[in-house]
Automatic annotation (TrEMBL):
Protein name (Swiss-Prot/TrEMBL): Uncharacterized protein
Gene Ontology terms for molecular function: heme binding; iron ion binding; monooxygenase activity; oxidoreductase activity, acting on paired donors, with incorporation or reduction of molecular oxygen
Secretion signal, residue range per the UniProt entry: none
Alphabetized UniProt keyword annotations: Heme, Iron, Membrane, Metal-binding, Monooxygenase, Oxidoreductase, Transmembrane, Transmembrane helix
GO cellular component assignments: membrane
Annotated organism of origin: Brassica campestris (Field mustard)
SUPFAM superfamilies in the cross-refs: Cytochrome P450
Length: 110
């Protein structure tokens, strides 16, 4: 029963992403001018977060940030709710992945 919902969920997400790519005017854009770390970002700008770089940031992960260490987080309390941005597999804030709880449970059961 647990695995029964997975294929339909994946299909839904695949088609949603396809439609967003086909209609680029739909993704969220800034409505006001904002300042981030001293940079002015104009209204109407679409901001993308470089998750690849975050996951390889030596200041957050140490000198071995590029290495696969499966036990790296065994003694760490992982905050998937977007408060600790070095753990951002499900996004953050209002646009956080609504399926994160399902995925975490699915991985633990598997």
């Amino acid at each position: 029963m647990l695995f029964g919902a997975a294929p339909t969920t994946f299909t839904l997400l695949e088609w949603t992403m396809t439609e967003l790519l086909r209609h680029p005017e739909s993704p969220r854009q800034l409505s006001d001018v904002v300042k981030v770390h001293g940079y002015d970002i104009a209204a109407g700008t679409q901001v993308l977060i470089n998750i690849w770089a975050i996951q390889r940031d030596v200041s957050a992960w140490g000198q071995d940030a590029e290495e696969l260490r499966p036990g790296r987080h065994l003694d760490t309390v992982v905050d998937f709710q977007g408060q600790n941005l070095k753990f951002i597999p499900f996004g953050s804030g209002r646009r956080q992945c609504p399926g994160s709880g399902y995925v975490v449970a699915l991985v633990e059961v598997t």
